[in-house]
Amino acid sequence: MKNEKLIKEIIADMQASRIENARKYGTQPLEISESDDREFIREVLAFEDGISSAEDFKAYSLFNLYSDCYKDENGIRPRWLKWDDHTLGEWEEMIEKINQD
Question: Long-range pairs for 61-66 at CB < 8 Å and ≥24 separation?
Fold first, then answer.
């Protein structure tokens, strides 16, 4: 039951982020079904320990984006890093920096 509450919190946050990004970039919000979001979130929560809030989930998501960017830039994934090594804001800064290079 605790996971269901967390899943609802993450879904609400994801939907709000999609709307905010659509406004920011002048596009339509991504239309992804709640059941697809729910399935994806359940998979992540089953696989990754320590995610206990929507902010943790965002940090996990940004870590994965950073890992992709790092691999594109350096040819390897930064496997020595974990999603909870940095805060949400730090991941955002790291992504911005690697994309400037």
Answer: 62/88, 62/91, 62/92, 62/95, 63/91, 65/91, 65/95, 66/91, 66/94, 66/95, 66/98
- CB neighbour class for 2 (10 Å; exposed up to 12, middle 13-18, buried from 19): exposed
Task: Report d(CA 10, CA 2) in Å as an integer.
Answer: 13
Taken in order 48, 53, 59, 61, the sign of the CA dihedral is positive
Give dist(CA 71, CA 67) in Å, integer.
Answer: 6
Domain locations in the chain? 1-47, 51-101
Tens digits of residue pLDDT in 5-63: 999 999 999 989 888 888 888 888 777 788 888 999 999 999 988 999 999 999 999 99
